[in-house]
Specification:
alpha/beta; 2 domains; Glycosyl transferase family 1 domain-containing protein; single chain; 11 helices; 6-stranded parallel sheet; Rossmann fold; globular; 9 strands
Length: about 280
Amino acid sequence: MLEVQDLWPDSVAASGMSATSALSRILGPICNFVYRRAAFVFGQSEGMTARLVERGVSSERADVFFNWADEEAARPNGLYDVAMLNFEGRFNFVYAGNLGTVQALETLVEAAHLVAREVPHVQLTLIGNGTERMRLENLVRDLGASNIQICDGIPPSHIGDVLAAADVLVAHLKDDPLFQITIPSKTQFYLAMGKPILIGVSGAAAQIVTEAGAGIAVPPEDVDALSKAMLHLASLRQGELDAMGVRGRRAYDTRFAFNSTVSRIAGQINRVMEAECR
């Protein structure tokens, strides 16, 4: 049984790293062979599962495997001193995760810089490490963006304190067709945190957030749309923001919680086992 979190070789090509075209041509037939030979295949979204079927997996041997959040980590526990992040007196947008190429976080930096011209107390905090961190730090310095800070990664056991102190949680991926069928794992984690979400991703992840009424989705790599969404969220009353968070947590509990997802997987495992034993 195979669980597919990243669709290969598509995700390799989307990474933008050198020599990926040649590598994708080699990986493609290998991956298709593995997908077709598995007794059962789970994709992490409806779109990914549909793509696997297009690539030769029988629809009777395919299902959706939604990720769940680390539900213990998705809550404040008092282990981290949030005062170190200078959130006080600010409206805080927080991104936590990889600072890599596929996240295209320069879009967030440029949007937050624009917003500060109209609402100086808006602050963007990027938390994490990755191949693009130095470039992002240079961009912040070149823009003179005093309302943007980039901080080292925080252990999962502490991140709940930070995200709970944020006003809005942010997710973003570059504009690539692959990401229309990919649900970043932070989508479920942000929903579980019960905070408003601003997501710059098209497709499945954006649909989850908007259908839940948990936040705002904007097109990826669109600085103007992102800055307008930030301005709008910063203008809302606290009660409206809280209601978004409540709806997000409700959507998580209903659709993505550990127990419901594992029950679905167990059912398919039992079905495959029974078929093998006949």
